[in-house]
């Protein structure tokens, strides 16, 4: 099993910043693509940003220029730097990882999420 634990969420005023982290733990795994998703009440889960193990990134149009995704492969940790936050960024942010595990092959894991609330 691989566990993903998010941290760094909270309450911030519009225009403020937060930095989310997602730490992966377990044994016998190799993380391939990682991503941040978010889900607001009454809305579908959406991809915010993704990053490959080679460092290629992609972003939702709504966050381009404001959010930056990065990862530290040595620490099995992914980050999301969020600047100029807007009330519409309010959501639960979830970490996702596509992992190759010895004896299991490729598997998809989710964290439990961290709440981000942006006040106007």
Secondary-structure topology with pairs:
Elements: E1 2-7, E2 10-13, E3 18-26, E4 29-39, E5 46-51, E6 57-59, E7 67-72, E8 77-82, E9 91-101, E10 105-110, E11 114-119
Parallel strand pairs: 2-11
Antiparallel strand pairs: 1-3, 3-8, 4-5, 4-9, 5-6, 7-8, 9-10, 9-11
Would you mind describing this structure in some detail?
With 120 residues, the protein is mainly beta. The chain has no helices and 11 strands. The protein starts with a strand and ends with a strand.
How would you sum up this structure in a few lines?
This protein has 120 residues and is mostly beta strands. The chain has strands spanning 2-7, 10-13, 18-26, 29-39, 46-51, 57-59, 67-72, 77-82, 91-101, 105-110, 114-119.
From the structure above, extract its key features.
seven-stranded mixed sheet, 120 residues, four-stranded antiparallel sheet
């Amino acid at each position: 099993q691989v566990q993903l634990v998010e941290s760094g969420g909270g309450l911030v005023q519009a225009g403020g910043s937060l930095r989310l982290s997602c730490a992966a733990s377990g044994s016998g795994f190799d993380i391939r693509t990682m991503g941040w998703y978010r889900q607001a009440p009454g809305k579908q889960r959406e991809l915010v940003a993704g990053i490959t193990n080679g460092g290629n990134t992609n972003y939702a149009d709504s966050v381009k220029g404001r959010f930056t995704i990065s990862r530290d492969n040595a620490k099995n940790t992914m980050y999301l730097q969020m600047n100029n936050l807007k009330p519409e960024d309010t959501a639960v942010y979830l970490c996702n990882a596509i992992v190759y595990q010895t004896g299991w092959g490729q598997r998809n894991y989710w964290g439990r999420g961290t709440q981000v609330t942006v006040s106007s």
